[in-house]
Design a protein that fits this description.
Layout: H1 6-14, E1 24-26, E2 37-40, E3 46-49, E4 66-70, E5 82-84, E6 87-92, E7 95-100, E8 105-110, E9 118-128, E10 135-143, E11 149-154, E12 159-166, E13 169-178, E14 189-196, E15 199-204, E16 207-213, E17 221-228, E18 234-245, E19 260-266, E20 274-279, E21 301-307, E22 311-317, E23 323-331, E24 337-340, E25 345-349, E26 360-362, E27 365-370, E28 374-379, E29 384-394, E30 397-408, E31 415-422, E32 428-434, E33 438-445, E34 448-451, E35 456-457, E36 468-475, E37 478-483, E38 486-492, E39 499-507, E40 513-524
Parallel strand pairs: 19-24
Antiparallel strand pairs: 1-13, 2-3, 4-18, 5-6, 6-7, 7-18, 8-17, 9-14, 9-18, 10-11, 10-17, 11-12, 12-13, 14-15, 15-16, 19-21, 20-22, 22-23, 25-40, 26-27, 27-28, 28-40, 29-39, 30-36, 30-40, 31-32, 31-39, 32-33, 33-34, 33-35, 36-37, 37-38
């Protein structure tokens, strides 16, 4: 099976934790003394602060070249000297001291330098701590003028983290976790932060403790920072700062691919019958890792070893090929477990009854409840599209149905499928399968069809009267279609933002077309 297109992957990543819920967002609000930036304080106010001008370098450095260093013996070397409500930064006793005094806020100083791919090394000592040791301190890279960037953190209890600062929010790219590489007995900790392309790596005392990937920022300033979790001040002293050009050797990847393993926990309400774990660079989902007849029930876990890449994509399906979970670029260096979570079901319509759905004669055809088990839509008029909508309506929804054609129309060119965001005038979006085994996403404009994607063939689409499982994702202004678990198409269209859920059949000239729908499930696109 082919994966979703790159464009859709980018969109899916923007819907944070929407459908697959992959990273946690902390509630820390960041204070930052960078020139002309607006600060979001814990009280929700915005304040402007001053800082040094950023010096932009123009040369591309050779690998591992020393780009910048500071032992903080010269108080005119360019780092911020600040005294405000968030704390102070200053050169004291040949070190750069950062004091954080405001509860649940960071204080930091920037160098006024500008780098892209770098390895930053620095020594740090905690001089004063609060009684509860609610602290955090470290080094930052790719800091933007508005305060966004990446933070590499440790605390006095021995925990580590990698954080993304973006638009006044802090996202834990690597969540806070204990690591015994951190000295907690008062010794100086040596931190190494590596920002190399999209790869972000933290070493503590020359031991790699965390690594992840992120594509938000690729250049910016560097900073040294301290966080206080209480109203009591935290004081850290930084020394022996060195910035080298990053090289591929800076990221410690295990030499053997056999070292990569992952434990999957099925936290959803679905039984998983299809499980795919493939390298992130791979275009296709390749082979199912579950053998025929094998499944992972809700609450069960399964271990997968001998994975061949440190960055993988994951897809989990039900026995009917419904996508329960899909996640991209899971870093196996920093991640050993992954929880499969499924969407929240809003409607289950098995069609043992048709309450909320039309029955009888409709314009161009007939709707019936065949054998009290199937919802049948027959179109008898030539070159006619018939749409039937339920009482259920919504905005961001995922539809899933099992359907087949009883009559495939002239030359198997009849069309059937699911509709979402149907309007009172007959407009909406149609996820369509044609009898010859092709599929398309179609806009319906007052009853007339307008193709949004080309007709696409897939070896996974059953032709003629054979049964197909259809998934239709209607999320924001984006529409995506899967048939029997295979990605078929994706498109953006802004015309319809909400509306009713339904089914549709088109019959070409020559013979009538009939489609039977076994069930329709509707899930929240959260």
């Amino acid at each position: 099976m082919k994966k979703i297109s790159v464009l859709y992957i980018v969109f899916a990543l923007m819907l944070v934790a929407s459908l697959t819920g992959c990273s946690a967002v902390s509630n820390l609000i960041k204070s930052d003394p960078i020139k002309e930036m607006l600060l979001a304080t814990p009280a929700g106010t915005l304040e402007r602060m001053d800082a040094t001008d950023v010096v932009q370098s123009t040369e591309v450095p050779p690998s591992d070249q020393l780009l910048y260093s500071d032992d903080f013996s010269d108080s005119d070397s360019g780092w911020n000297i600040i005294d405000d409500e968030y704390g102070t930064t200053d050169y004291i006793d040949g070190k750069y001291q950062v004091v954080a005094i405001k509860e649940s806020s960071y204080n930091w100083g920037v160098a006024g330098q500008y780098f892209s791919d770098v390895r930053i090394d620095v020594d740090v000592d905690i001089l004063d701590d609060n009684a509860d040791e609610e602290d955090g301190f470290g080094v930052d890279c790719r800091i933007q003028e508005n305060g966004d960037g990446y933070g590499f953190r440790i605390d006095t209890k021995g925990n580590i983290a990698i954080e993304l600062f973006y638009e006044d929010e802090t996202t834990e790219l690597v969540e806070w976790q204990y690591n015994d590489a951190v000295y907690t007995d008062g010794r100086t900790n040596h931190l190494t932060a590596i920002c190399n392309g999209a790869d972000l790596t933290l070493k503590v005392n020359d031991v790699q403790v965390a690594s992840t990937t992120d594509y938000t920022f690729f250049s910016g300033d560097i900073a040294l920072s301290v966080y206080s979790g209480s109203a009591d001040p935290i004081t850290a002293a930084f020394d022996n700062l060195m910035v080298h050009a990053a090289t591929i050797a800076d990221v410690n990847v295990p030499a053997s691919s056999d070292d990569f393993a992952l434990e999957l926990n099925n936290e959803s309400d679905f039984t998983i019958c299809g499980l795919f774990i493939v390298p992130s660079a791979e275009e296709f989902w390749n082979d199912d890792l579950l053998a025929d007849g094998e499944s992972i029930a809700p609450g069960e876990s399964r271990n997968f070893s001998n994975l061949t890449d440190s960055s993988v994509d994951i897809r989990a399906e039900t026995c009917d090929y419904f996508t329960v979970n899909e996640a991209y670029e899971i870093n196996l260096i920093s991640t050993s477990t992954y929880d499969l979570t499924g969407p929240r079901r809003l409607l289950h319509q098995p069609f043992d009854n048709t309450e909320g759905w039309p029955n009888g004669v409709v314009d161009g055809g007939m709707v019936s409840n065949s054998n009290g088990e199937l919802y049948s839509l027959t179109v008898t008029e030539a070159d006619k599209l018939v749409t039937v909508s339920s009482d259920f309506s919504g905005q961001d929804l995922i539809l899933f149905a099992k359907a087949s054609m009883v009559k495939a129309g002239a030359e198997d060119m009849g069309i059937y499928g699911l509709t979402c965001r149907m309007q009172p005038n007959g407009s909406g979006v149609f996820f369509a399968i044609r009898g010859d085994g092709m599929a398309s996403i179609i806009a319906i404009n007052k009853g007339e069809m307008e193709q949004l994607t080309d007709w696409t063939i897939s070896e996974y689409i059953n032709v003629g009267i054979e049964e197909n499982n259809i998934e239709a994702d209607c999320l924001d202004s984006y529409y995506t279609m899967f048939v029997n678990g295979d990605y078929v198409g994706y498109v953006e269209d802004t015309r319809y933002q909400s509306g009713k859920v339904g089914v549709a059949v088109f019959s070409p000239a020559g013979e009538s077309t009939q489609a039977d729908f076994d069930f329709i499930d509707v899930y929240a696109g959260e």
